[in-house]
Amino acid sequence: MADDESGLRSLSAASLIRLPAHGKDQSARLIIGADKGADALAAAARVAERLAEFQPVARLLSPLSTDVAVITLPGFGFSHDLAAVFDFAEALSRATGVAMIEPEFAYAPNIDEETKPGAAIPEGAFAVPGCWVGEDPALDGDTAWAPAMIRAPQAWAFSKDGGRPAAGKGVIIAHLDTGLTDHPELAGATLLSGLDLIDGDAMPQDPLDPSSGNPGHGTSTASVIVSQAKGKVTGSAPAASLLPVRCISSVIVVFASRIAEAIDHAVARGAHVITMSLGGLSSFSLERALARAVAADVIVLAAAGNCVKVVVYPAADPNCIAIGGVNAKSEPWRGSCRGPEVDICAPAENVFRAKAEPGGSGGSSQGEGTSYAVALMAGATACWLAHHGRARAIAAARSKGLSLQELFRRAVRDTARQPADWDAMLFGAGILNMEALLRLDLDAMPTREGGAGVSSAPTGEGRVRNLLLSLAEEPSEALAAAQIHAVQTEIIAQVMLRRTGDAQRTASRRLTEAISAEGVAALSLSACSSDAPAAPSLKPLALSADTRADAMLRHLRKRLVAKVAGLEAAELENVPDDAPLPPFEDALAAFDPANVDAFIARFPKGEVACPDDIKRALGIIWRQAKPAYGKLNSPGGISQASAGDKAALEAVVNFDGSSPSLLLRQSQVDIAHPLAGAWAESLFLANSGLLRDVAPAIGRIQRLDGGPAAFFGTGSLVAGAKKGDPPLVLTNFHVLQQILRSPGVQYRLSGSRMAIYGGPGLDFDGEIDSPVRVTHKIAAARLPKGCGQTAGAIDAVALEIAPVDRSKPELPTPIQLSSDVALAGNTAAKLIVIGFPADPKSSSGVVDGVDWNWISSVLFGRRFGLKRAAPGLVRTAVSGLGADWHESVFAHDASTLGGSSGSIVFGLATGTRGMGLHFAGLTGQRNEAHAFGTIADALSGVGICIA
């Protein structure tokens, strides 16, 4: 005991410093965590007892956070000797038996020596050379340029013209900042009573203290959200209600636990949106508060940060939408933080905002910083919720198996405007487009999902691993395998504080033990890289007006007519829209209960998991499809079809032989399969040529220990551009993104090439009767010019691979890609997609009490993640999808499902050359693919042969 006490005293002496009288707001804080259901306050009391000489004050974080307590040491602050501080926390943990004790730093970067105390400084509050731009006199005549750039006026008009609540009316935005002051630019705005967590009262008044670093910051950002445009400032949601919470005295002195407390307060007060124009370090208290907010259907936004390059917290947390910045020319603002966490950008340079200063006139001026970008985004979020209705948006999210936060993240990416030469690796999907965001139909959003058993959202640990990589001079497999869970906070602190030249380069004992000697050496001796490694940002394509479910039903109607009439699939275009439908019993004979036993008997061995389940599934389709079929056959009936009708008819298409997805065995399909339908003859010909030649080169991208239940997508071995070049694996850009977000994967970007460490492998067998056999792993990625996931981007990437061991396994023959654009320009041309469809968990979901996901799973024999071939037709030729679409895209109707991302599309009549790359789909309506002929230059630029 005496030794423990002596050790604590020694460590406390090295880690705690007495603060000057004016530094009380920076008092040291220890965050105490408890497992769910445990008493965090009791644990905090044990810790406080050991710190009695510092007169500690212990309390619960908030009424919503009973598993987190905070101990404050008034008048004492932590030194910047990170090793000593974290060793002190670990010693406290050993002495008290409290496992989770986290020291919390106020993130306070050094102010440039040219910036004197009390001087006016930019929004980020510290003058980093080369970061700030300064005011632009050319913009003085257009004070509303920022809301105009994001098409805010058009968004308001669209809502108003449609009879919807406009400009954010009825939506509550919690504004976590330095508080507010009276200002003419806020006159007429709806300001709710708030909370001051600094002074502990209900008056979130900004004292405009010149020593705070950025007085009036909260007033400035609030004006960008809710200003009524009566002065010079126009907010992006002037009809929204603002709930101010003063939780920081300066944007550069940020306690994560206080932000967490503010988030909890916002949730408890019924906020719909939380906006945070601030940034600093992370804490498990902040992580938990963000997760609680998202679970409560609150949309959480934060500024990516300024000048330090790496995205700061809370924006870097997976449960937060991170907003970067651009200028009036649609170029990235040079001070914007960048990297894998950035979802989208909005104006951040020379944005007009209210100016509140001590003794100021209450005027306005240009401001810089991602604080203004996230403020504009907060208004856009309020407009989106008001337009659609929050309850309806939540219902749409639930139907897709998403949180409201994730639905909005996808929607805002889906509709971003991407300028030419936009770097999606660093700045997300593009620039906010409020009008397009509101016009996007929540029920008509395409998906670009990967496989199964891997998260589609970034993980906190994955992001921290890449921060660790940014500290290393050379990445290594040792760093990729490090057990970092217990030391994540220290890694974040090391990175953030080093980037401002504000910390010693030593690691605590626990961090030292967590990684290998090689990793410690890299961490201890290297300087931070100037740019954090970056990953792409998920971005589905926008939809044109003719992609709604009605178009799907009209197409289905034609297929049913053609099927009963014995027409070839390619003859669909000759079927009139008003051709009479055959009797229901003829069109859906396979689902007739009288025929079920014969139908099941035709399935190949091993594809029937449970005959009784198949009978039940077919019976449900029969009952549900009958009334839906009647609507197809009545005037105006298509427009009256319910969600349940559409789900039933979608199931008909998947399982009546119109759009089969058939398992491969030794690169062949069973043409006698009951789902082969009218495709049997075409598949017979494919067996003897195309499938035999190309299927072996198509692999499942999976973790090294993964398989059909845990994989990322599909990758195809393709020929190199020059003779003698090694083959590459072609897949989607968004599949790479999912790989980079996977725990344990690290990467380093250099130009258009990204080295990958701890990455997944490929199983080129992947058939129903094949054992899992991973022979190669992904070593690097090559990024084609223009790659990304917006309507103007190419969703493709080339992967370099290496053997997983020294056995030098033989690779299959690479696939040749065709530059003939005409292959994808012939509507109704037959095609086939070969890939690894995953369990359709986000298909039609549960509709009117029917679980259509279960039905799909049963009729696929619960055999997912295995190599399949899916024939179909070109639905819309290249360049025929409307102005919102990339000129390389064509639409097809093959049954792909999630996991087929990255699959090559082959023409059934054109031999073994690939015609396109599948990348997205809209359930029951259509799938999208890039025609190789139109993106040949981009692919050739990364070493892929286009013949």
From TrEMBL:
<comment type="similarity">
    <text>Belongs to the peptidase S8 family.</text>
</comment>
<dbReference type="Pfam" id="PF00082">
    <property type="entry name" value="Peptidase_S8"/>
</dbReference>
<feature type="compositionally biased region" description="Polar residues">
    <location>
        <begin position="211"/>
        <end position="221"/>
    </location>
</feature>
<feature type="active site" description="Charge relay system">
    <location>
        <position position="371"/>
    </location>
</feature>
<dbReference type="GO" id="GO:0004252">
    <property type="term" value="F:serine-type endopeptidase activity"/>
</dbReference>
<dbReference type="InterPro" id="IPR000209">
    <property type="entry name" value="Peptidase_S8/S53_dom"/>
</dbReference>
<dbReference type="InterPro" id="IPR051048">
    <property type="entry name" value="Peptidase_S8/S53_subtilisin"/>
</dbReference>
<protein>
    <submittedName>
        <fullName>Subtilisin family serine protease</fullName>
    </submittedName>
</protein>
<feature type="active site" description="Charge relay system">
    <location>
        <position position="217"/>
    </location>
</feature>
<feature type="active site" description="Charge relay system">
    <location>
        <position position="177"/>
    </location>
</feature>
<dbReference type="InterPro" id="IPR009003">
    <property type="entry name" value="Peptidase_S1_PA"/>
</dbReference>
<feature type="region of interest" description="Disordered">
    <location>
        <begin position="202"/>
        <end position="221"/>
    </location>
</feature>
<keyword id="KW-0378">Hydrolase</keyword>
<dbReference type="GO" id="GO:0006508">
    <property type="term" value="P:proteolysis"/>
</dbReference>
<dbReference type="InterPro" id="IPR015500">
    <property type="entry name" value="Peptidase_S8_subtilisin-rel"/>
</dbReference>
<feature type="domain" description="Peptidase S8/S53">
    <location>
        <begin position="168"/>
        <end position="390"/>
    </location>
</feature>
<keyword id="KW-0720">Serine protease</keyword>
<dbReference type="InterPro" id="IPR036852">
    <property type="entry name" value="Peptidase_S8/S53_dom_sf"/>
</dbReference>
<keyword id="KW-0645">Protease</keyword>
